[in-house]
Write a structure and sequence with these properties.
It is built from six helices and 14 strands. About 2% of the residues have low confidence.
């Protein structure tokens, strides 16, 4: 019993296996949030394959799994066809769409398993797959789950989980620098925290853990404006303003080596110290489990 977070895939855009990514991992987005006996799965990137194998080995084995997809770009759904529980009769997978009239996640997960793309069709899966609607927010096994709109081409949602005073925020694929409250690039040079959308700050305020998109350095971001991802300093400033306990830099760029991720973490820690913040900063690392 308790609240646990485990990173199964931390990379953005495309899987990047290699010697230079083995510390932080090369699998794309998949994070497990386990609260008491309830298993939530945030995104179904290539990391969900290893999660599936692990779920099959657990005793007792969880029967109900709650899958929340931020959006349906390839790096967030490509692992689902290889998710072992989907091929087992023992499981019921609750697949959450944002609203009652929205079936995009269900439709696209099944669509990528058409015969043109994959030898096993969605209809061949043995698990019971139930399409559910969050309708902005709901309570699942006593856990308050809310969806949070983010700034990403084509639309995207983050999620927050809260129970017994513990709060986790999963906010990936979000471009903080563009928006009504944005303050970039001047915010990096004026000695002030960069602005972030007030609604987003409110949604994650005082979370124990914020997992958020921090794909680029400032220099990289200037070449990728409008791509839907944030710079590491904007993510840090967002976390400081939201007064979260810890920040996990997430959705690492596919060209970013382990050494470069380390450098980014240190840079963000220096920035937090500059603003006299007690924020704990680390990089999401594949295979690491946290107990909150």
């Amino acid at each position: 019993m308790g609240v646990f977070v485990k990173f199964w895939g931390t990379r953005g855009s495309i899987p990047t296996p290699g010697s230079w990514t083995r510390v932080y991992g090369g699998n794309t987005s998949c994070v497990e949030v386990r609260i008491d006996d309830t298993v939530f799965i945030c995104d179904a990137g290539s990391g969900i394959r290893e999660l599936g194998k692990d779920l099959l080995s657990r005793k007792p084995m969880p029967r109900d799994l709650h899958l929340l997809i931020s959006h349906t770009h390839w790096d967030h759904i490509q692992g689902f066809p290889f998710f072992s529980p989907a091929h087992a009769r023992d499981f019921r997978i609750h697949l959450y769409n944002v609203g009652k009239q929205d079936d995009s996640r269900y439709a696209l997960l099944s669509g990528q398993m058409s015969s043109s793309y994959f030898p096993v069709t969605f209809g061949d899966l043995q698990a019971e797959i139930v399409s559910e609607a969050l309708n902005g927010g709901t309570k699942i096994d006593g856990v308050k789950v809310k969806c949070v709109p983010t700034n990403h081409p084509g639309g995207c949602f983050g999620y927050t989980f809260e129970k017994d005073g513990k709060r986790i925020a999963y906010i990936t694929d979000n471009e903080l620098e563009i928006g009504d409250d944005a303050d970039f690039p001047d915010g990096g040079n004026t000695g002030n925290l960069r602005g972030a959308p007030k609604d987003l700050i409110k949604a994650v305020r005082v979370a124990d853990l914020l997992i958020t998109d921090a794909q680029y350095t400032d220099a990289e971001y200037e070449e990728r404006v409008g791509w839907g991802h944030s710079s590491i300093f904007s993510a840090t400033d967002f976390a400081i303003q939201a007064e979260v306990g810890a920040l996990a830099l997430f959705h690492h760029d596919p060209e970013c080596s382990d050494e470069e991720v380390d450098q980014r973490v240190e840079a963000c820690r220096r920035r937090a110290a500059r603003f006299e913040s007690g924020l704990v900063v680390f990089a999401a690392r594949e295979g690491v489990e946290l107990k909150l």
